[in-house]
User: Which sequence fits this backbone?
């Protein structure tokens, strides 16, 4: 039978156990993952299984890194997303969290654009660090993403997005993620991208301020190629701040919507 | 005449533009994305795009925060 071990192809006799393969290929491994799920050494392998052998604490070489980073993925997901190109407009509370989630998923390329620099008041919800204060957000985030998954190509654009440059910056993005703060900027971005690329999906965020129930944050298809994540109504305003938990809920709705689109599923429903 | 506005039938004045409709329902075009018959309409074309019987109009209102 054919088995993939750390993404390399091997042939073994039927009724071989995971432990027997471990003994032959990586005897010092102490974590065995079969088809995305941890398994015991006694588990019998089946033809076509994907076995990952990991030694805890060992930093893998570049050739094995991709397979080991995605060992817990649902099988087939990484192959489906690693060739994709996703644009993220704005890398504040939404965009920084979305970029990290997509990098961990193993998206092939992220195009991130933002004019802003990291400030202390960002750190209550945005995925930056004290030692990044003063850096352009896109460069700080690019460094963070490289520490998480160096196989993700990151194109960092430190600029203000306008109707004049949106098509150029995101010309190669197959899906655009809107992650701005200002409502008028959200509208401007969606109108501009939809005019240039009417067939490409846009995943937007609206309504994630405050500490209302997380359960009111939804993913909805609000137009032909437009998916909206948020409660749709809770604006950032005096007395209603933006905080990590609910912004993070909305951001991960957006990241999951991107993943579902890439896998051919409707982000808002169970339909394929 | 009747259009479908945000998923529901709605009686509107005959021959008005999308901009005029937004003004009547008091929606600020700077804070909404308008989809007319499954196409998103940029705000500079709202005044020159006229509604017809049976048209579908989706108006998505945005709030700040991100």
Assistant:
């Amino acid at each position: 039978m054919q088995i993939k071990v750390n993404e390399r192809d091997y042939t073994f006799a039927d009724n071989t156990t995971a432990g027997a393969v471990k003994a032959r290929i990586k005897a010092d491994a102490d974590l065995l993952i079969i088809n995305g799920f941890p398994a015991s050494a006694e588990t019998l392998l089946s033809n076509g299984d994907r076995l990952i052998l990991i030694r805890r604490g060992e930093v893998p070489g570049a050739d094995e890194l991709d397979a080991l980073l995605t060992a817990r993925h649902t099988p087939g997901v990484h192959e489906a997303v690693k060739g994709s190109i996703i644009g993220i407009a704005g890398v504040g509370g939404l965009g920084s969290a979305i970029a990290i989630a997509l990098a961990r998923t193993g998206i092939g390329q992220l195009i991130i654009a933002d004019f802003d620099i990291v400030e202390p008041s960002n750190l209550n919800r945005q995925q930056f660090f004290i030692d990044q204060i003063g850096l352009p957000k896109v460069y700080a985030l690019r460094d963070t993403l490289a520490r998480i998954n160096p196989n993700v190509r990151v194109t960092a654009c430190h600029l203000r997005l306008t109707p004049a440059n949106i098509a150029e910056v995101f010309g190669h993005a197959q899906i655009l993620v809107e992650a701005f703060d200002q409502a008028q900027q959200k509208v401007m971005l969606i109108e501009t991208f939809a005019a240039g690329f009417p067939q490409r999906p846009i995943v937007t965020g609206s309504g994630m301020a405050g500490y209302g129930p997380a359960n009111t944050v939804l993913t909805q298809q609000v137009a032909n190629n437009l998916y909206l994540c948020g409660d749709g109504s809770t604006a950032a305003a005096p007395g209603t701040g933006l905080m990590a938990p609910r912004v993070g809920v909305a951001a991960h709705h957006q990241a999951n919507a991107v993943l579902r689109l890439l896998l051919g599923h409707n982000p808002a429903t169970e339909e394929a | 005449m009747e259009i479908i506005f945000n998923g529901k039938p709605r009686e509107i004045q005959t021959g008005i533009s999308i901009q005029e409709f937004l003004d009547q329902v008091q929606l600020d075009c700077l804070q909404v994305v308008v989809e007319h018959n499954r196409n998103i309409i940029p705000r500079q074309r709202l005044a020159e795009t006229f509604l017809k019987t049976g048209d579908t109009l989706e108006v998505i209102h945005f709030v700040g925060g991100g």
Q: What stands out?
A: The CA atoms of residues 79 and 161 of chain A lie 31 Å apart. The longest strand of chain A covers residues 218-223. The helical segments of chain A are 18-25, 62-69, 77-81, 93-105, 137-148, 166-169, 183-196, 244-262.
